[in-house]
Amino acid sequence: MFAALLTALIFASAFNDVSSVNLCPDGWTFGNETSYCYQISQRYMTYAETDSYCQTIGGRQAFIMSTKELTFFSYFTAGMFAQPWLAITRNTTTNVWHNSDGTTAFSTWWTTGEPSVNGDCATFKSTDKAGMKATPCYSVQPAICRQMPALCPTTTNYGGSYSRTGTIKSPGYPDQYYNNLDCWYVINSPNNTYITLQFSPYLVERTFDYIQAYDGPNDTYPYLGKTDEYTNPRYDFESSSNVVSFKFHTDKTITNNGWLLTWNAQVYSAPINQTGQNGTFTSPNYPDNYGPYTEQLYYITAPDGFHVNVTIDDFLTEARFDVLEIYNSSTVLPNNLVANLSGNATVPWSWVSPYSYVTMRFKSDGSVQKRGFEGYWFITFP
Ligand SMILES: *[C@@H]1O[C@H](CO)[C@@H](O)[C@H](O)[C@H]1NC(C)=O
Ligand SMILES: *[C@@H]1O[C@H](CO)[C@@H](O)[C@H](O)[C@H]1NC(C)=O
Ligand SMILES: *[C@@H]1O[C@H](CO)[C@@H](O)[C@H](O)[C@H]1NC(C)=O
Ligand SMILES: *[C@@H]1O[C@H](CO)[C@@H](O)[C@H](O)[C@H]1NC(C)=O
Ligand SMILES: *[C@@H]1O[C@H](CO)[C@@H](O)[C@H](O)[C@H]1NC(C)=O
Ligand SMILES: *[C@@H]1O[C@H](CO)[C@@H](O)[C@H](O)[C@H]1NC(C)=O
Ligand SMILES: *[C@@H]1O[C@H](CO)[C@@H](O)[C@H](O)[C@H]1NC(C)=O
Ligand SMILES: *[C@@H]1O[C@H](CO)[C@@H](O)[C@H](O)[C@H]1NC(C)=O
Ligand SMILES: *[C@@H]1O[C@H](CO)[C@@H](O)[C@H](O)[C@H]1NC(C)=O
Ligand SMILES: *[C@@H]1O[C@H](CO)[C@@H](O)[C@H](O)[C@H]1NC(C)=O
């Protein structure tokens, strides 16, 4: 909560020269002292109804979080006839007053002569030392609701011609994102690369809050898809070029911790296709080091009816992160993975395919490059 408030304050100061009016939805008031949005209901209600009322309009019932908020409430409610509810109640067993988040209400924020025994819920009184006042819970009073303002980050462009990887967080992550957002993010990567996006963790209100990704700098480019598609939820996307963009949309109620995006630029390289009776293959640049974020496919196709003996006689990659995957299928199919070699894989490594084709895929990450591998193949008779 505290970190979220700080973040809000930082964003708010960045927005100072813009009009702060835009930060809150219609009908809400931006609290210049706290950078939250507030609304006092027209309708009067009992304490028990107040929080659910606030949730229907996109907020939560407010208690006093700071002296700055106390100051704000005192002029926000000044001149009001009624005293609005605060989300503060007395535990009648222990006689301790608690805020709705379970914390103890701050004892010096009571108005003069309070808390009295006259009630187990609290309202806000702006006169006579502004502060909390004990009030019977069945009393009918207005609600005072609070929500995070709709703040998108001030940066919308990430990456660049020399950036190959990065992370982006949703506003306020890991505390809480805000309601009513439509934040745009554009990522650029070096020429001749494409970009993979991976949202993890992804803690976002199902269905109503989501991300939509586009294969270019804005939504006039092809649509890549949406997180939380009801039938086909996905949290990974891949662009076809070195620019990708996405929008984070949130509706007016319910938020969550948000998301962390890791993006990577991947190097294009055309698949290496080999046919005939034999051949040799190496990792890119071998015997020099392969590059970062390399992905290289190898398709070996022998004449029908033959098998393929694949032998690797030199191998060194970064253990676990730079891998050579070998498949007994004609394309990359996870269920057909025969070997996943990395690090100091034992060589010579050799295997005979059950079919007349073999697929291999080499992938490296962004750190630690090694010389890679060298191998050969030849056809064998059934
Ligand atoms: C916020 O607004 C009130 C009323 O206009 C003003 O008295 C107060 O000084 C302002 N506070 C800050 C921190 O700007
Ligand atoms: C009041 O406090 C007691 C003792 O800590 C606790 O067991 C009880 O659950 C509390 N009641 C409410 C309504 O929170
Ligand atoms: C990337 O490609 C564009 C367009 O071809 C070119 O103008 C730019 O200089 C290239 N950038 C780099 C870093 O090579
Ligand atoms: C989308 O991006 C392209 C290329 O940057 C630009 O020419 C176009 O004006 C943009 N369209 C919108 C609606 O922003
Ligand atoms: C290499 O093989 C793949 C899979 O069979 C195919 O999609 C691709 O077009 C081939 N590329 C070339 C240059 O032959
Ligand atoms: C590799 O295949 C070619 C024909 O494509 C053949 O001439 C050559 O002898 C073969 N080499 C080996 C080592 O089998
Ligand atoms: C494949 O070829 C290698 C090198 O010629 C040989 O050592 C190995 O035994 C062969 N593998 C099989 C399963 O025949
Ligand atoms: C290969 O192993 C690496 C490291 O253990 C792992 O990250 C990768 O997912 C594996 N590849 C496949 C296709 O299972
Ligand atoms: C292909 O590889 C998969 C995964 O290792 C294995 O389950 C399957 O039996 C293999 N197919 C054949 C025909 O050997
Ligand atoms: C891999 O093997 C080489 C040669 O045996 C050795 O020098 C090196 O330390 C090994 N690396 C790792 C990570 O085990």
TrEMBL record:
Keywords, in A-Z order: Disulfide bond, Signal
Xref: Pfam families: CUB, Lectin_C
C-type lectin domain: residues covered: 33-146
Domain CUB: 152-266, 268-380
Leader sequence residues: 1-20
Gene3D superfamilies membership: Mannose-Binding Protein A, subunit A, Spermadhesin, CUB domain
Keyword Magnesium: no
Database matches in InterPro entries: C-type_lectin-like, C-type_lectin-like/link_sf, CTDL_fold, CUB_dom, Cubilin_domain, Sperma_CUB_dom_sf
Name of the molecule in the record: CUB domain-containing protein
Species lineage: Eukaryota, Metazoa, Ecdysozoa, Nematoda, Chromadorea
